[in-house]
Amino acid sequence: MPPPLPPVTRTVGQLVAETLKTYGEHWQAALAIGLPPALLSAAATGFSRSQTLAIVPFAGAVAATASYVLASAVVSGVPLRSPGVLPAAIAGALVYLPFPLLAAVFILPGLAWFAFIGLAVPAAVAESLGVRAALRRGIALGRADYAHALGSLATLTILVFVTQIAASLLLQGFADNSERAAAFLAGLVLSPVLFLGAAQLYADQAARVGTTRDQRLAARLASGGRPE
Question: Is residue 13 part of a domain?
Fold first, then answer.
């Protein structure tokens, strides 16, 4: 295998590959990352539509933020006692609040919002930022190479959710699991890829701040890569 490109020229495919590598190196932490969304997925299988609309947005904010903060700490190598963790959690909850409404219209608006400001969470963890500074930094990171950020998040989302649905159906059919147990197991194992990938994206976007598209393309071609 050729060596991976540096973050400033890394493609979406290589971001996914680095995410899976990180997952393998920290699989125990990855299972902890997957626990909150797995519990929510298992619980939501028994909800009515009205309960889902009333409960899931708020429970999802807690579950997604907890997993994202933990994933950011794992990728950045920062302990959970670092000063940026609490601001990261607050920023993550604020970023998540409009996400269910945007995603309900169509998933792409939700991903577009997250690509624009969602990197505030790993920024707060890695750079020990306060809430306001983290949100400003998240916007700056999202704008550094917005196409790469949105494309990466869309790819990770498709990979995780399609695989999660398939795995859940297989677990129900071949292991005689209930729908709730299958949703829990699939979420536990697969959802960490999304959070670790989003945290990995922080390094890509941080390296691209202050660069132009032409500069990134020239650097990618000079290092033997192909245009994204």
Answer: yes
Q: Are 95 and 54 in contact (CB under 8 A)?
A: no
Residue type for 100, please?
P
Domains contained in the chain, number: 1
Percent of the chain whose predicted confidence (pLDDT) is above 90: 55
Domain that holds residue 156: 7-220
Residue 222, number of CB atoms within 10 A of its CB: 9
> Average model confidence (pLDDT) for the chain?
85
Residue 48 placed within a domain: yes
Higher pLDDT, residue 28 or 42: 28
Residue 228 lies in a domain: no
Query: pLDDT at position 7, please?
Result: 84
Amino acid at position 94, single letter: L
CA distance 60 to 174: 29
Q: Is residue 20 part of a domain?
A: yes
The confidence band for 182, taking pLDDT boundaries of 50, 70 and 90, is confident
Contacts 24+ apart (CB under 8 A), 130-138: 130/87, 131/87, 131/90, 131/91, 131/94, 134/84, 134/87, 134/88, 134/91, 135/91, 135/94, 135/95, 138/91, 138/95
